[in-house]
Amino acid sequence: MTGLPAETSIERFVTVGAYSLLRSCTIEPECIIGQHSILMEGSLVETHSILEAGSVVPPGRRIPSGELWAGNPAKFVRKLTHEETLEIPKLAVAINDLSKNYFSEFLPYSTVYLEVEKMKSSLGISI
User: Fold this and answer.
1) Helix H segments across the chain?
2) Which SUPFAM superfamilies does the record associate with it (predicted)?
3) Which of 47, 56, 76, 121 could cysteine-pair with 28, CB 3.0–4.6 Å?
4) Do residues 42 and 4 lie in contact, with contact meaning Cβ atoms separated by under 8 Å?
């Protein structure tokens, strides 16, 4: 046991890139986690921070507020400008709006397929 909390906490206006792995970490409001990033146990990404794609945050590491980090293991790159921090929540809202446009393309999550299987079985349909 590490003594670290076994929960992952993601606050508001956070963008998490595809194929990222979040393990018992905390991401404060208004952050960007690049795709294929890995955040290990007990890591903390503070408000207004950006993690570049493919970054790995080791266990217990803290990414301070308003900074850009990248690499494996993640290292400080530079401070973010005020303008960049203002764009972070705008990106989260834009991605959320875009997802709503394509939501109808996906099947709803449910157990209806189980009822269909029962009906096919009772009618003797093998397909």
Assistant:
1) 82-102, 112-122
2) Trimeric LpxA-like enzymes (SSF51161)
3) 47
4) yes
